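Reopening this one. Same input as before:
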Amino acid sequence: MFTGLVADKGRVLSLQQGAESAQIEIESALVPEIKVGDSVSVNGVCLTAISLSENSFKADVMVQTLRLTSLKSLEVATSVNLELAAKADSRLGGHIVQGHVDGIGVVKENSNGEKWNKFVITIPQSLTKYIVNQGSIAIDGVSLTVGEISGEDVTHWLIPETLAKTNLSEKKPGDLVNIEVDVLAKYVERLMKRGGEDGK
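Same output, byte for byte:
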């Protein structure tokens, strides 16, 4: 489990594509804290570290993961948001993030304001039912508060701290981003469906 609070902005060093999987190597200041087998959120996707060097780690990415997430658009030198798994004794500063991507969004706007950026994402219609104003959403692994939702467009206001510590400041219109909606909304939906079935 993660919290959506990015711990480091890493950099892709290499990408090796195989028939059924790919391998990604990422440079990060978090390497001293990572052990082989640890879960690492990479742009919101939960990956497993399989090897370590002095300043980088490698992880395998299955073809299915590449197909369903924005990791397929990564290139060498691309920056990525990184977070290590949450510890039980730590404060939950963001919200519960599983690292299981629900869909791919497209950046519609990322414009500078006086004190923040207006950041608009177009999301798959199937995910809009899980999103509410002032609710939580993870964009490329970053826990954000929804400022406004209009149809399939979700607007966020990115503060300087978020812009400095994540790669969202680099996103341009047309870029793909990973979307993970609030898992609590999905649990509520499931419970309501089960309640309706039990009442029949």
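So the earlier flakiness isn't reproducible anymore. For the record, The domain at 103-189 is CATH 2.40.30.20 (Elongation Factor Tu (Ef-tu); domain 3).
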